[in-house]
Amino acid sequence: MQHVPVNASSAYPVYIGGGLLEKAGELIAASTQSHTCAIITDTTVGPLYAAQVCRALQEAGMAVSLHAFPAGEQNKNLGTYGAILEFLAENKLTRSDFLIALGGGVVGDIAGFAAATYQRGIGYIQMPTTFLAASDSSVGGKTAIDLAAGKNLAGAFHQPDMVICDTDTFRTLPDAVFSDGVAETVKHGLIADADFYQSLMAGDIRAQIDDVVRRNVEIKASVVGEDEFERGRRKLLNFGHTLGHAIEKCSGYGVTHGHAVGIGMALACRAAERLGYSPAGTLDAVLAANGRFGLPVQCPYGADELYNAATGDKKRDGGSIDVVVLEEIGRAKTVRLDMDGLRAFTEAAL
Hints:
about 350 residues, three-stranded antiparallel beta sheet, 13 helices
C-alpha cells in the first residue's frame, strides 16, 4: 500500500494499492469516531463492490446504509442529488456521520456535493473505482452536479477525509473506460512533469498502475496544496477541459470525459501553436499520446457549436475566460481571453 498526503485546508491521506476494499473498515475505523455511514454508489459499481465494502465496514463495527442511483453522467443532476439528500435524511444521518463515495467520477462528484450540503456539511470518504477518478477527481475536494446549461455548474469545494484507491477495481474496466484515466494522466505529465510524460509513452501503464496513480496524486496534491480554491495554479489542471467540456455538452455526454479531454488537449495545442501561445511540437506530443493510448483527436463539432457550449463553462469570469496552453512539455500557463478571443481560439483549434 502506498500513501500520499494531501495538505489542503484539511489534511488527509490517499491510500493506493490492491486489495484495499477489504481493508476499508480498519482504515476508516482507525481515523474516525463515527460508527454510522452511508455508501453512495451507482447501478454499475454497486453490484460489483458494494457488498464487499459493506461487509468490511460492518466487521469494523459500523452501521451502514446503501443508496445506488442510475449510472451515467446524464444522471449527475438535481433529481439524483435530491434523492441522495432525502435518503440521508430518511436514514437519520447526523453531522457526526459520514458518506462513502464508491464509484467513478460521477459518483464522487455528486456524493461529495451531497456531503458538502447535507446538514451544512458532513464528512465523506472517496473510494474511486475507475482509473480516471483515482488519478484526478477523487483528490482535491471539487464536488458538483451538472445543470442543463453545462457541466459542474452547481457545486462546492469540500475536501474528503480520506481517499482509498483499490487499484484491483480497474481490472473490471473496459479499455475505453480505462483510457479515460489515461487522458488525465497524460495531462498531468504535459502540464507538470515531462519525465512522467516520457515514462508513460515508453512504459506499460497497467503493469505499473500503483506507481502511476501515486504520481498522478502527487501532482494533483501539490497543486491543490498551493491553490485549493482555483484562483491561480490550480487552473492549469483544466488543460484540455474548456473545449473538452464543450464537446461533452454538445454530445449530450455521449463522449466520455477522458475522451473529450483527449480531443480538447489536441484542440488547445493546435490553437495555441497557430496563435503563438505555444511552441511547435506541443501538438505533436498530444497527438502521439492519443495515438499511443487509443484516444480520439478529431472533433465532431464545428466552431460555432463549441464556442456556444464553451461560453457556459464555469471557468468563465464575466466577459473573459482562462484557457490553458503549454509553454513546453511539462510546463503550462493560462491565457486570459475575452469572448472574441475565445471564438478566435476555437476557430484556430479546428
